[in-house]
Amino acid sequence: MIMDKDKVLQETEKMVKTALIDEKSGHDWLHIKRVKGTAIEIAQKEGADVFVVTLAALLHDLADEKIVESEEKALSEIRDFLLELGVDGEDIEHILTIITTMSFKGGNNRPVESLEAQVVQDADRLDAIGAIGIARCFTYSGKVGQPIYNPDLGVRDQMTIEEYRNNKSSAINHFYEKLLKLKDLMNTETAKELAASRHDFMEKFLEQFYQETREQRP
Ligand code: ADP
Ligand code: NI
């Protein structure tokens, strides 16, 4: 069977859109759509396999433990879905590896290896910074009941699980825990360039924020 790449991409997009259209934890369909667009742009500039990158970008959050009960089950469903569409076995395993290795999980994340994995990870990280990143951060904070900022807390790089449970962190604190670090974690030169202006925008936002709150910026 000769695989029709356009059809594979169309069918995958349709499936992901249906699965995530009502997602409220920051992994909604529009996040996926932005990551896909950015990933294709980076892939073209870096000479990565655009087909694999596009599929991995579309599928990258479908096995996240925040969304599904079992990561293993979700991965095996993705494998079956792609097999059914006639995607090459090697490409399928590559896509599954990308999905499992790229998520930012505290300090113990394995480094991603292939260029395609680096590209999709960069695109996902770019969506966590800049104006969109700020918006997502405050949305997430509202959802978990975390305050905008906590002047008694100061700025903390790492919170303990206990502190998280007691809701001691804040949206502003998340900038220091993660968002301001992301520009230096970009894998590709193209993503580093894209990250620079988004990072500067967050810096400007924080300047203005501390000015208006009359708190000392740490
Ligand atoms: P992804 O899996 O797409 O890398 P996450 O699931 O870690 O992202 O987070 C989804 C969004 O919510 C991101 O924009 C992230 O910055 C934000 N977010 C995650 N954890 C926190 C937190 N503790 N406080 C505020 N925002 C957060
Ligand atoms: Ni994502």
TrEMBL record:
This is HD domain-containing protein. Residues 28-129 form the HD domain. InterPro entries: HD/PDEase_dom (IPR003607), HD_domain (IPR006674). Pfam families: HD. Signal peptide: none annotated. It comes from Gracilibacillus oryzae. CDD domains: HDc.
